Target: Malate dehydrogenase
Amino acid sequence: MKVTVVGAGAVGATCADNIARKELAHELVLLDIKEGLAEGKAQDMQQTAQLLGFDTKITGSTADYSKTAGSDVVVITSGIPRKPGMTREELIGTNAGIVKAVAENILKYSPDAIIIVISNPMDTMTYLALQSTGLAKNKIIGMGGTLDSSRFRYQLSQHLGCSASDLNAIVIGGHGDTTMIPLIKHATWNSIPVSKLLSEEQQQQIVADTMVGGATLTKLIGTSAWYAPGAAGAMLVEAILRDEKKLQTCCVYLDGEYGQKDICLGVPVVIGRNGWEKIVEIELSEEEKAAFAKSADAVRNMNDVLKTL
Ligand SMILES: NC(=O)c1ccc[n+]([C@@H]2O[C@H](COP(=O)([O-])OP(=O)(O)OC[C@H]3O[C@@H](n4cnc5c(N)ncnc54)[C@H](O)[C@@H]3O)[C@@H](O)[C@H]2O)c1
Ligand SMILES: O=C(O)C[C@H](O)C(=O)O
Model:
């Protein structure tokens, strides 16, 4: 199996590191536009092989897409991250051009690849990647819900004083500070609804803190996060290559599901060797349905911005 990670910055390198440590691929290619960066990080990572005990062959490339030929999965992380005080949406002007060019180059050398889009604003970048490659919809997966759901479980675990692994909780909708929807009324702690264990006020706090999870880290670090984003990207690569049929919230093309059409948005999907294989429709309350429709409106407005660039 061969995996390419485009963008050897914070998220791309972390994602690649996780892929190598888990030996998900025989061949791993890191590609970046910045001269020497991908080659350097690939070599550094390869030098951990004996220390960590993996056999993956890691190579780096400065924008030479021929090195990525025949990839089974490609992860796109190229683009600028936000700075404190910015929204993800403000990155569209720079990142749309980068993601479009990268997706087209990937397609030339790996026409059968499944593409995972991480660059922000992720929902719109996923839509753009789908449009510019013309690939089958199941082959384009935006990573956001996996990360946001992990942050949601973190927040819940802090309030409940429990292991995050014992929690079942997902975030649907857009991957934006105001567009994501942590489904707190569906969240359980080993089958016990968390709404029975937490006050209404605590629940609201958890939802609010989850929604600004990325912004909070950006303020602390000075740039956006990478450990959890990189690990979340690698988890999706693993689910694809090992055909795990894992249920994850990912940004995928909706064609009527959840009442939406012609948009990529976060919903629960089954991830396996064919990319996203099935959308799972869960029953939403009227309030959750309204939040989903509002999230879709906001993402659709961002998608419209693409036409003006
Ligand atoms: N979807 C998510 O959940 C999520 C999570 C974290 C970060 N992100 C996004 O991921 C992106 C990367 O974040 P980061 O922290 O790794 O940034 P970074 O600046 O550390 O790395 C980005 C890399 O992309 C490279 N790059 C730029 N243009 C390129 C091109 N045309 N071809 C190849 N490489 C190119 C840069 O040289 C840089 O090394 C940002 O847009 C960020 O907002 C998304
Ligand atoms: O917060 C960001 O801008 C990066 C990413 O989308 C995240 O959620 O960590």
Observations:
- The two ends are 36 Å apart (CA to CA).
